[in-house]
Amino acid sequence: MFDSSHLQSDIKESQQKLIKQLTNQITENPGPPTRKILARCLATIFCVGDTFMLFDTINKCNDVIRNRDDSPSYLPTRLAAICCIGGMYEKLGRMVGRSYEETISLLIKALRNAEVGITDNQHIRQNGVTTPHILVLELILC
C-alpha cells in the first residue's frame, strides 16, 4: 500500500536540495517538454512539502523574466521561468499571496518589449517564427 505521509516526509527532508536543483535547470535553456516538467515538479514539491521557499523561487523566476537580455539564446530560459511561475500559480492558488502583482507587471513588460521588436522590424527568426511570437505563444500555452 502507498504511504503518502512517508512520501511527504521524504520530500520535506530533501526539499531545499530539490528546489535548488530544479531552479538551476531553469537557466540551462530547457526545451518545451523540460519546461513543463520543471513547472509541474516545482508546484508539486510546494503542494506536498513546505512552502517556506515558495516566494524565493517565485522571485528567482521573476528575476529571470526581468533580465533585459533579448538574445535568442536567453529566450528558453525566460520561457522556463514563465512556465514555472504559471505552474506554481495554477497549482498553489492563494498560497502565492500577492506576489502575482509583480509577476503580472513583468509579464506585461515582456510582452510590450516583444511587440516593440515586432513593430521595429527587429525580427529574430527561429525555425521560421519570430522570437517575440514565440514568447507570446509560450505565455498562452503555459
UniProtKB/TrEMBL annotation:
GO terms for biological process: endocytosis; intracellular protein localization; retrograde transport, endosome to Golgi. Coiled coil: none annotated. GO terms for cellular component: cytosol; endocytic vesicle; Golgi apparatus; membrane. Signal peptide: none annotated. PANTHER family: HEAT REPEAT-CONTAINING PROTEIN 5B (PTHR21663:SF0), HYPOTHETICAL HEAT DOMAIN-CONTAINING (PTHR21663). This is Uncharacterized protein. It comes from Ridgeia piscesae (Tubeworm). The lineage of its organism: Eukaryota, Metazoa, Spiralia, Lophotrochozoa, Annelida.
